[in-house]
Amino acid sequence: MRPPPRLLVAARLLLGQTQAEVAADSGISAKSIFKAENGTAGIVSVEKLMRHYAAKGVSFIEPGSKPGWGIQTDFLQRDYDAESAALGQ
User: Fold this and answer.
1) HTH cro/C1-type domain spans which residues (predicted)?
2) What is the pTM of this model?
């Protein structure tokens, strides 16, 4: 199952990367990333992009007993206040 295109954008933004940076890291062309984020890429490109994000610590959560997709990371482990304090804000 493919996640909605907006979740692919969210995954990239959680990593703090541009489309060009993801392309350089993943070996997926910037054009394919653009198409995936706009909902026009083929399933092979989307799955390759999802594997790249999974390797970087971003997982997609498919709809289950509740409707709607989700996203989670294994690198953001502090709440808002703790993260702000760590960033010196």
Assistant:
1) 8-51
2) 0.83
